Amino acid sequence: MTSSTELYVNLQKIYLAKAEADFLVLQQRVKSILKRIGRDPDSISKAMIKSFCKNARKLKVCRYRLIEDEFSNPAVSELQKYLSDEEYSVAMGFYILLRAVDRFAANYNSFPGQFEGELDEDISRLKTAAVGLLNDLGCNGSTVTEDLINEMCRFGASELHAVAAFIGGIASQEVIKLITKQFVPMVGTFIFNGIDQKSQLLTLPAFHRIRWGSR
């Protein structure tokens, strides 16, 4: 494919004309909205609108829910779906157990499996906490496998250096996304299964909207 300077310049003018036309349409729309909500129609500058037009293709709408909502208003249908889905059941099981461990620690001032000689008792206690949590979440009749409960107690709240570094790296990456408002943050609860070397996101319904720039 070849092109002359004249054709290239003409093509460039076509793109510039289209960009200017889009800017004018959006500018009128912005002024109309500002006027309707009682703000100065010129409070958003031309430079800002042009920048928005230029980068619109890089914007993504991300919807999230507060952690408080996740605890106080659980999405029962989503929880049940993940628990019954073979692909996500293990990740969902760990999610339930991590929350059950919080209850365990609050009740017994220790983590399951933390002290030698109490493993069998801790397994029973953690199972009870997990069943109680599932019932509170509205997932009556759902269970977490014995293997996952035993594994959660077996590792006794230990923190392997490699796993801690991996999780820390992911957390810091997400913080940078939030601070800079660049790239797309994760939407959902991230679960890393170090046994199977598998990462999964559990996405529950969202109620809050934030706009982020992505590259």
Concise description?
By secondary structure, the chain is mainly alpha-helical. The protein contains 8 helices and 4 strands.
Report the order of strands and helices.
Answer: HHEHHHHHHEEE
The biggest sheet amounts to: 2 strands, antiparallel
Overall 3D form? elongated
Distance between the termini: 29 Å
Determine the number of helices (DSSP H or I, runs of at least 4 residues). 8
Helix content: 55-70%
| Binned strand content | 5-15%
β-strand number: 4
Residue stretches low in confidence (pLDDT < 50, at least 5 long) are: 206-215
Strand order of the largest sheet: 1-4
Estimate the mean pLDDT confidence: 88
What Rg do the Cα atoms give? Answer: 26 Å
Assembly state of the chains shown: single chain
- Category from helices, strands and their pairing: mainly alpha
